[in-house]
């Protein structure tokens, strides 16, 4: 029995966490703790006791304040004109899992061992988990934030029964009740395109 | 950013187990050289040499010991050879040689006679084996009832039967009340307090 327990101490556990409406850096801190095995009482810098973590619903991740627009991720490939700052929302549009990857990678610290820790992170854009991953999962982690109910999820009856704090005038215009589609005025910022234009101007 | 995928290595697990603190393991056990004393006892101290200076102040305790006590020690320990070596301008030294080949040295510089006598007694009582600590790193009056920790020790047993992912397990538990809950609670209280 003791032998079995000691072998179980060093097993790689598979955790699952739902990233729906979770702050990406709060979630990253928690996921990094499990990836490095820091939560275990047997943890030691030389003990390789990190776990696997499966993060589902990465596309529904949340960021604080105006971070989707103003959080810039810096990439540098050490080639001429390859330094770019890309805002978070553009990275998220390109790959819904990449923001979580970057946040967890940052939260893992600066030591070289994070390379092997991040390899045990499995990111999924939606709630569908492939069966070959799901059969390993033995534990579900608690979320880091409460999931709020979206305005579109309230029924009409619930809206009517909700206590009125303010009485609006008759001609009050409600801005929006549901998120609106992009009207199309905004053009995406493309760092590479802009740089090439700057280079072209002196030749003209 | 590509991450290098690696196969889990057994060596890492082995080194991990090595670094664990085995609290129940002593650092040594009391031993005698060659099971001395099991059938008959052979005194292990064979030779003691006293180095000292006849004039120097720091050998005064050693000189007093040699003058007053050494004859007595020689008669009570017939198996031990005592040598006395006066060397000019030398700090005092006691060299004890044991049956297992160990040599122990003590330096009673500026000590009085009583302290020198205590050092000699210590050398006479030792077996010549190295000193090991006989304390365990951790002690416990009652051993663990629940057994060793495993990753599943504090895990909810409801997860064994539930089908993951389940929203119940991922729900964030907090003692803080949200603004929506607060408004609803106030409205409910007001409704209960108002007489119909």
TrEMBL record, chain A:
Which GO MF terms are attached to this record?
mRNA binding; structural constituent of ribosome
Q: Which CDD domains match?
A: Ribosomal_L13
Q: What are the BP-aspect GO terms?
A: negative regulation of translation; translation
Annotated Gene Ontology cellular components are: mitochondrial large ribosomal subunit
One Pfam family, short name: Ribosomal_L13
Q: Which UniProt keywords apply?
A: Ribonucleoprotein, Ribosomal protein
User: Which InterPro entries would you find in this protein's record?
Assistant: Ribosomal_uL13, Ribosomal_uL13_sf
Q: Which family does it belong to?
A: Belongs to the universal ribosomal protein uL13 family.
The protein's name is 39S ribosomal protein L13, mitochondrial
Q: Specify the species.
A: Diploscapter pachys
TrEMBL record, chain B:
Write out the coiled-coil annotation as residue ranges. none
Q: Where is this region: Disordered?
A: 170-196
Q: Where in the cell is it found?
A: Mitochondrion
Q: Where is the signal peptide?
A: none
Q: Which SMART domains match?
A: L51_S25_CI-B8
Q: Which UniProt keywords are given for this protein, alphabetically ordered?
A: Mitochondrion, Ribonucleoprotein, Ribosomal protein
Q: Which domain of life is it from?
A: Eukaryota
Q: Which InterPro entries match?
A: Ribosomal_mL43, Ribosomal_mL43/mS25/NADH_DH, Thioredoxin-like_sf
CC annotations in GO: mitochondrial large ribosomal subunit
The Ribosomal protein/NADH dehydrogenase domain covers 54-127
Does this entry carry the keyword Ribosomal protein? yes
Provide the GO biological process annotations: mitochondrial translation
Give an example GO molecular function.
structural constituent of ribosome
* Family assignment from sequence similarity: Belongs to the mitochondrion-specific ribosomal protein mL43 family.
Against PANTHER family, the record matches this protein to: 39S RIBOSOMAL PROTEIN L43 (PTHR21396), LARGE RIBOSOMAL SUBUNIT PROTEIN ML43 (PTHR21396:SF2)
Q: What is this protein called?
A: Large ribosomal subunit protein mL43
Q: Which organism is it from?
A: Diploscapter pachys
């Amino acid at each position: 029995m003791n032998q079995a327990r000691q072998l179980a101490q060093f097993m790689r556990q598979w955790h699952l966490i739902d990233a729906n409406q979770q702050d990406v850096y709060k979630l990253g801190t928690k996921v990094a703790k499990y990836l490095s095995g820091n939560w275990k009482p047997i943890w030691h810098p030389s003990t390789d006791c990190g776990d696997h973590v499966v993060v589902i619903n990465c596309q529904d991740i949340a960021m604080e304040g105006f971070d989707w627009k103003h959080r810039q991720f810096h990439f540098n490939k050490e080639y001429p004109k390859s330094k770019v700052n890309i805002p978070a929302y553009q990275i998220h549009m390109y790959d819904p899992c990449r923001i979580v990857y970057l946040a967890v990678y940052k939260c893992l610290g600066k030591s070289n061992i994070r390379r092997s820790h991040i390899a045990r992170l499995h990111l999924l854009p939606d709630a569908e988990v492939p069966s070959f991953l799901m059969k390993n999962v033995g534990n579900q982690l608690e979320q880091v934030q409460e999931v709020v109910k979206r305005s579109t999820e309230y029924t009409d009856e619930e809206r009517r029964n909700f206590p009125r704090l303010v009485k609006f005038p008759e001609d009050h215009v409600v801005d929006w009740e549901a998120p609106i589609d992009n009207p199309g005025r905004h053009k995406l910022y493309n760092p590479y395109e802009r740089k090439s234009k700057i280079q072209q101007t002196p030749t003209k | 950013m590509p991450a290098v995928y690696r196969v889990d290595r057994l060596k890492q697990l082995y080194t991990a187990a090595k670094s664990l603190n085995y609290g129940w393991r002593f650092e040594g056990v009391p031993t005698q050289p060659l099971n001395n004393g099991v059938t008959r006892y052979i005194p292990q101290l064979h030779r003691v040499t006293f180095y000292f200076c006849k004039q120097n102040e720091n050998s005064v305790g050693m000189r007093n010991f040699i003058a007053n006590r050494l004859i007595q020690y020689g008669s009570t320990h017939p198996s031990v050879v005592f040598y006395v070596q006066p060397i000019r301008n030398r700090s005092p030294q006691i060299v004890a040689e044991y049956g297992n080949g160990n040599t122990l040295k003590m330096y009673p510089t500026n000590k009085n006679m009583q302290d020198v006598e205590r050092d000699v007694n210590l050398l006479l009582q030792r077996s010549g084996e190295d000193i090991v600590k006989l304390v365990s790193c951790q002690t416990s009056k009652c051993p663990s009832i629940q057994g060793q920790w495993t990753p599943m020790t504090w895990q909810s047993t409801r997860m064994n039967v539930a089908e993951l992912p389940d929203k119940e397990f991922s729900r964030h538990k907090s003692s803080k009340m949200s603004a929506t809950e607060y408004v609803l609670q106030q409205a409910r209280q007001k409704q209960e307090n108002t007489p119909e």
